[in-house]
TrEMBL record:
Domain of life of the native organism: Eukaryota
Gene3D superfamilies recorded: 3.30.420.40
UniProt cross-references to InterPro entries, sorted A to Z: ATPase_NBD, Hsp_70_fam
UniProt organism field: Trifolium medium
Keywords from the UniProt entry: ATP-binding, Nucleotide-binding
Designated name of the protein: Heat-shock protein
Pfam family, one: HSP70
Annotated family: Belongs to the heat shock protein 70 family.
Gene Ontology MF annotations: ATP binding; ATP-dependent protein folding chaperone
Length: 51
């Protein structure tokens, strides 16, 4: 939901499609939270290169 909206905003600003992304998360996120963030990116249609 949030990543989908951010993708739309970025695409409007850049006037280009956004596919590959780097997502920043807080240092205290554990592995399951990081995996959930990657999964959310995939659901939003993004290729999460690095987290």
């Amino acid at each position: 939901m949030v990543l989908t909206k951010m993708r739309e905003v970025a695409e409007k600003f850049l006037m280009s499609t956004v596919k590959n992304v780097v997502v920043n998360v807080p240092a205290y996120f554990n592995d399951s939270q990081r995996k959930a963030t990657i999964d959310a990116g995939t659901i939003a249609g993004l290729n999460v290169i690095r987290i």
